[in-house]
Amino acid sequence: PSGKLDVWREITPVLRGRDVTLLWKQAPSFRANGRSISYEVTWEKVEDGSKPESISFSSVYNSTRISIDNHSYKISIMAKNNVNYSLPSVLIIPRATGNSRKTLFCPFLGTEELKEEQVNGTDDGIFISWETRHIYDSYIIDWCNFPMLQPCDLQWKRFGPNTSSALINSAAFVPGVRYNFHIYGSVANRASLLEKKTGYLRELPPLRDPTVQKVELTFNAVTLSWDSYLTNETQSGFVRGYHVYVSPIEEDCSLKGSKKHVLPDDSVLCKYTIENPEEKRYTVKHLLSNTKYKLVVKAYTGGGETPIVNFMYIDTPFN
């Protein structure tokens, strides 16, 4: 075979070492030049030159998992036909440093906490950009096509040293699912995690409303608390904050400090916006005493919020 395979890996820390999932696919420049193709994976410690281990697979396979200790390893993957082998595609797995995927480790730059940046999707895909560094000879982006499943169908794309952005698309991408992208720089077959991005093809409204768990009443105010609302990757969009809606039962609302919100039946609610997804408490002031009110708390994402259908009801006490 001519050319090389395009190879990638996922490293999972385990007790006394690491599990390495190896994946390969035929790059555009690869030519089988024969009918009976198989693959051979070989791995050996870099430091002590111990005897290599190897395993072979038929052409129906494109991944395997091996277990290694915490030393540095050299892994090569070759295609084979009935004549000879292709050139090896090599991966260097560095010595384990105790870092998680949340931490940036680069042998040239040192170690620092790696922040996750939100990115936006379009109908054509999810746009990813990154800062290039002159030390790398290529960049790799990986992601899961099905992030909530195991296995998650890990995918990757490789880019040249002068590329700093890409539109990532997949037939598996659907609205309302959060996809996490890891950007690696590679030099001399050794990849370092540089940046993390997370985004949706399209955000959808939250799956459910916050559950109000505590109500504190005075004659002219009500404080609502919703302590356990999730804003993580289980949501169908990035939770940007909350809206609190309130109105007297008998009439439209016009409370000081609120905005007018008109429902489809033309009734008017007072709307308050909380622009912090970590806030889980809000006080509505300027209420009338001895009055019945209806209220609802909604979370909103970049995809909006669900329609208002259910209210909770309170009675303010007599002054």
Automatic annotation (TrEMBL):
The keyword Signal applies. The keyword Disulfide bond applies. Keywords: Disulfide bond, Glycoprotein, Receptor, Repeat, Signal. Residues 1-100, 206-319 form the Fibronectin type-III domain. One of its GO terms (biological process) is positive regulation of cell population proliferation. One of its GO terms (cellular component) is receptor complex. One of its GO terms (molecular function) is ciliary neurotrophic factor receptor binding. InterPro entries: FN3_dom (IPR003961), FN3_sf (IPR036116), Ig-like_fold (IPR013783), Type-I_Cytokine_Rcpt (IPR050379). This is Oncostatin-M-specific receptor subunit beta. It comes from Eudyptula minor (Little blue penguin).
